[in-house]
Automatic annotation (TrEMBL), chain A:
<dbReference type="GO" id="GO:0006488">
    <property type="term" value="P:dolichol-linked oligosaccharide biosynthetic process"/>
</dbReference>
<protein>
    <recommendedName>
        <fullName>UDP-N-acetylglucosamine transferase subunit ALG13</fullName>
        <ecNumber>2.4.1.141</ecNumber>
    </recommendedName>
</protein>
<keyword id="KW-0808">Transferase</keyword>
<keyword id="KW-0256">Endoplasmic reticulum</keyword>
<comment type="similarity">
    <text>Belongs to the glycosyltransferase 28 family.</text>
</comment>
<dbReference type="GO" id="GO:0005783">
    <property type="term" value="C:endoplasmic reticulum"/>
</dbReference>
<dbReference type="InterPro" id="IPR007235">
    <property type="entry name" value="Glyco_trans_28_C"/>
</dbReference>
<dbReference type="Pfam" id="PF04101">
    <property type="entry name" value="Glyco_tran_28_C"/>
</dbReference>
<keyword id="KW-0328">Glycosyltransferase</keyword>
TrEMBL record, chain B:
<dbReference type="GO" id="GO:0098554">
    <property type="term" value="C:cytoplasmic side of endoplasmic reticulum membrane"/>
</dbReference>
<dbReference type="InterPro" id="IPR013969">
    <property type="entry name" value="Oligosacch_biosynth_Alg14"/>
</dbReference>
<comment type="similarity">
    <text>Belongs to the ALG14 family.</text>
</comment>
<feature type="transmembrane region" description="Helical">
    <location>
        <begin position="145"/>
        <end position="164"/>
    </location>
</feature>
<dbReference type="GO" id="GO:0006488">
    <property type="term" value="P:dolichol-linked oligosaccharide biosynthetic process"/>
</dbReference>
<keyword id="KW-1133">Transmembrane helix</keyword>
<keyword id="KW-0472">Membrane</keyword>
<dbReference type="GO" id="GO:0043495">
    <property type="term" value="F:protein-membrane adaptor activity"/>
</dbReference>
<dbReference type="Pfam" id="PF08660">
    <property type="entry name" value="Alg14"/>
</dbReference>
Length: 165, 216
């Protein structure tokens, strides 16, 4: 049973939730072979009704202590451009579609999504282009993402604070 | 009139002394060797918290106690931090002896809040941040750019200016920032001791910054 996990992070992203839970989008998702859609909607005002049919289930929640479990189980993640979720997905090797929130101040999150998209690690779109992208994308074209190196940071910090080994 | 002039001269003198002190504090490189480091981590909220916890993952148990500061409107960070600390203690037995605390301060800037009103909320945060920073007197302040980190870093600087303690301020610009600095980054670029960026484009634009590659 393949599933799609949609996450908006700490705040809200009503446009994304409205788009992905629309009739058209649900049909596209089902036609791609997914039988479950999980929405993490944060403090958004758009809260679709969960439902369950024989072939498809929609689950909706606001927050969980950790979305790790849902990320782990998902076969496809659709996310806001938050760095945390992006990096977590890429490290777990989850196919990721980042949807950019055009209404956010300065929209600086675009920078990261754009860069990671440029390097071929994820798909990236806006709410209006999401349905088209879902239909046309080829998940096998995504490049895997090498892990960051926090150990370099700890070595640097040890040095500058004068920590004795 | 004479009083006014004297008052102005007095204020000017104080300002010059403060600026000089600030300059001295920023130039001081405190590398006295030490056995343990008291760390104040500004976790902020959301992605900032996730990112800064990744930075902490490889720090040795000498970084104790660890004081986390989070925004009071933040619902998720407490659980993330507790989960992280639990994981660290399970992973490395030496981490079990280390201590950590979580402190809450008013958020400086909500998403979509205007910059002008942000100035006032930052001042309000200062009223909480300074007593907190004064009480904790950390060796190092580590932050990665949520609005909450500005009042904390200013407080840490103030400790230096007042001659109470030289706090090393380490700023890590979020991995989100590929081409431009965040507002906090722009403010703290000149006020931090070490300013770390994670993309080569930023290192080119800000040669004084430190580039260690992608560290989260």
């Amino acid at each position: 049973m393949k599933s799609v996990f949609v996450t908006v992070g700490t705040t809200s992203f009503d446009d994304l939730i409205a788009c992905v839970s629309s009739h058209d989008c649900l049909q596209i998702i089902e036609s791609l072979g997914y039988s479950r859609l999980i929405l993490q909607i944060g403090r958004g005002t758009v809260a679709p009704e969960p439902f369950r049919t024989e072939s498809f289930a929609l689950d909706v929640y606001r927050y969980k202590d950790s979305v790790k479990e849902d990320l782990r189980k998902a076969d496809l993640v659709i996310s806001h451009a938050g760095a945390g979720t992006c990096l977590e997905c890429l490290e777990k090797g989850k196919p990721l579609v980042v949807v950019v929130n055009e209404q956010l101040m300065n929209n600086h999150q675009l920078e990261l999504a754009k860069q990671l998209h440029k390097e071929g690690h994820l798909f990236y779109c806006t709410c209006s282009t999401l349905p088209g992208l879902l239909q046309s994308m080829d998940l096998s074209t995504l490049k895997c993402y090498p892990p960051g190196q926090p150990e370099k940071f700890s070595a640097f910090l040890d040095k500058v604070v004068g920590l004795q080994k | 009139m004479v009083y006014l002039l004297m008052l102005a001269a007095g204020a000017g003198a104080v300002a010059v002394v403060l600026v000089l002190r600030l300059w001295m504090v920023l130039r001081t490189q405190d590398v006295s060797s030490r056995q343990s480091v008291s760390l104040l981590v500004v976790a902020g909220s959301g992605g900032h918290t996730t990112e800064i916890l990744r930075l902490l993952e490889y720090l040795s148990s000498a970084y104790s106690p660890r004081h986390y500061v989070i925004a009071d409107t933040d619902k998720m960070s407490t659980n993330k931090i507790n989960g992280f600390e639990l994981y660290q203690a399970e992973r490395k037995p030496s981490n079990r002896a280390t201590e950590y605390y979580i402190h809450r301060i008013p958020r400086s800037r909500e998403v979509r809040q205007s910059w002008l009103s942000a100035v006032f909320t930052t001042l309000r945060s200062m009223l909480v941040s300074f007593p907190l920073t004064f009480r904790l007197k950390p060796d190092v302040v580590l932050c990665n750019g949520p609005g909450t980190c500005v009042p904390i870093c200013l407080s840490a600087l103030l400790l230096g200016i007042l001659g109470i303690k030289k706090v090393i301020i380490v700023y890590v610009e979020s991995i989100c920032r590929v081409e431009t600095l965040s507002m906090s980054g722009k403010i703290l670029f000149h006020l931090s001791d070490y300013f770390i960026v994670q993309w080569p484009t930023l290192k080119e634009k800000y040669p004084k910054s430190v580039y260690l590659g992608r560290i989260v």
